Amino acid sequence: MKKTCGLDVHKDTIFCAVYNGEKYGKVTEFLTTTSSIYELGEALQAEGVMDIAMESTGIIFN
């Protein structure tokens, strides 16, 4: 099954929910620092995530 991911991006945190066909997926919190964003990318690769969805909003940071 193809794994997918949803990202909920906030000013200081990113919540990452990985769905693998089960009712409840794995949710992990990351910071918005450069090193933590690299960790997020590595985690998505390790999970085998193929598609990522993210909510579209207006101005994110002022």
Brief synopsis:
Helix content is 23%, strand content 42%.
Question: How would you describe this protein?
Answer:
It contains one helix and four strands; from the N terminus they run βββαβ. The protein is globular. The model has no long low-confidence stretch (mean pLDDT 88). With 62 residues, the protein is α+β, with helices and mostly antiparallel strands. The protein has a four-stranded mixed sheet with strand order 3-2-1-4, with helices on one face. β2 (13-19) and β3 form a beta hairpin.
Radius of gyration: 12 Å
Strand content: 35-45%
Q: Helicity range of the residues?
A: 10-25%
Order of strands across the widest beta sheet? 3-2-1-4
Q: Look at the helices and sheets and give the structural class.
A: alpha+beta
Shape: globular
Q: Residue ranges: pLDDT <50 for 5 or more in a row?
A: none
Major beta-sheet overview: 4 strands, mixed
Distance between the termini: 39 Å
Count of discrete alpha- or pi-helical segments spanning 4 or more residues: 1
Q: Provide mean pLDDT, rounded.
A: 88
String of helices and strands? EEEHE
Quaternary state of this entry equals single chain
Number of strands: 4
